[in-house]
Amino acid sequence: MRRIRRPFGSPSSRPANEPRLGRDVYVLGVIAFFVMVGFGVVVPVLPVYVKSFGVGNLEIGAVVSAFALMRFLASPVCGKLIDWAGERTILAVGIGIVAVSSGLVGLAGSYPQLLLLRGAGGIGSAMFSVAAMTLLLRSAAPGIRGRAVGFYQGGFLIGGMAGPAIGGLLATISLTAPFFFYAGTLAVAGVIGLVLLQPATRVAAGGAGAAVPLLPLRTVLRDPRFRAACLANFSQGWSSFGVRGALVPVLVVEVLKGPSAWTGIAFAIAAVAQALALAPASRFVDTVGRKPAIIGAFLVAAVTITVIPFAPNIWLLTGLLCVYGVAAAFMGTAPAASVGDSAGSAGGRPVAIFSMFSDFGAIVGPLVAGFLADSVSYPAAFLLGGLLFLATSLYATRMPGGLPAQPAPELPAASTADPDAR
């Protein structure tokens, strides 16, 4: 495969016929923002709200796990639903399920009701996320897939930074207000998807109206690009939730002897670093390649997360989290672009499998990391996360180098005026 070389960031070096981000990509980015604003509003309030039902920490953890577990169990079905009904329909239905269940959470009269409603929300979340990523990868040409994923993740990141601040204000009104706000932002996201996303039509590259045959799933599963992406998603789910998200707050309080507010400040600064790195990371993935991005970023993340428990003060810890955030900008875009490269016309099933690896890591990671921190040490828990990142980096060396071949102009979904755009 021939590698395309051109000066990074040079306007004059961009080919005149280079594809641009389509309307669906921008719409999905806006949807991601509204979804994550609402989710960010709920996250800080949820444990306190669950506690108000007179339950303990185990029951609080069960509510969080129920959402992730139902996402994991529902993902395989989502792939088949997408192939049957289309991405836009499943996306809207999924958002609707999360919106209704979130609103009802605010009206829950007992803990079992709350647990069931959060589980139902996990099903809707799986439908939305798998459909959105399938549509995103199908809508973007190979040469701009990294930038499309980066824009989409930017919506999530910005929404995630704004959400907790809004949630803190709403919590002063009542513990249930954030859940109604979340339902409202999801309703807005669902309407935007139904109105602005283009209906899916698959056509063959050389024929008008001919259906594109789906790529066999077994072919995708044998592709080292897809396998590397799944391993990358698993290690990110494990380390982001089980190591970074679960243990860093405890590390700040118990080891550095600082207030819990330090954690929020450090995470916010790291999120800004990740947001600033998204654009250059996305262009790197599209112009240099997915393989070097995965190898380099996961290697940097492996070293960084292993060193974090040895940080002597909050300043160095924040700096390390910022380095991790920059690496995360590459780790989020390159694997997803690799799924698009390997899956091609395989429909929603490969994306569902890709999503399941992250969910499984998010379910198992916190349990194993917590066990290691309690029974061995904090450095041991962080080291295991670093080893998973290192394994991803090493496996990515099996990926083919270079950039994916550019398709014929009629393949990318860029305009509704062109009947062969999709």
Structural class: mainly alpha
Largest sheet: none
Low-confidence stretches: 1-14, 202-210, 408-422
Overall 3D form: globular
Structural domain tally:
2
CATH-scheme architecture of the largest domain? Up-down Bundle
Q: From the alpha-carbon coordinates, what is the Rg to the nearest angstrom?
A: 21 Å
Instruction: Give the CATH H-level superfamily of the largest domain.
Output: MFS general substrate transporter like domains
Mean pLDDT, to the nearest integer, reads 86
- Compressed to H and E, one letter per element, the order equals HHHHHHHHHHHHHH
Separate helix tally = 14
CATH class of the largest domain: Mainly Alpha
CATH fold label of the largest domain:
Growth Hormone, Chain: A
Classify the helix fraction into a percent range.
over 70%
Subcellular location: Cell membrane
Organism: Cryobacterium arcticum
Pfam families: MFS_1
Transmembrane segments: 21-46, 58-78, 90-109, 115-137, 149-173, 179-197, 261-281, 293-311, 317-339, 351-372, 378-396
Secondary structure blueprint with pairings:
Layout: H1 23-42, H2 46-51, H3 57-85, H4 87-105, H5 111-139, H6 145-171, H7 177-196, H8 217-221, H9 224-254, H10 261-287, H11 290-307, H12 314-343, H13 349-375, H14 378-395
Description:
The chain has 2 domains: 23-198, MFS general substrate transporter like domains (Growth Hormone, Chain: A); 217-401, Growth Hormone, Chain: A (Up-down Bundle). It contains 14 helices and no strands. It has helices spanning 23-42, 46-51, 57-85, 87-105, 111-139, 145-171, 177-196, 217-221, 224-254, 261-287, 290-307, 314-343, 349-375, 378-395. It is globular, with a radius of gyration of 21 Å. The two termini are 25 Å apart. The model is unreliable at 1-14, 202-210 and 408-422 (pLDDT under 50).
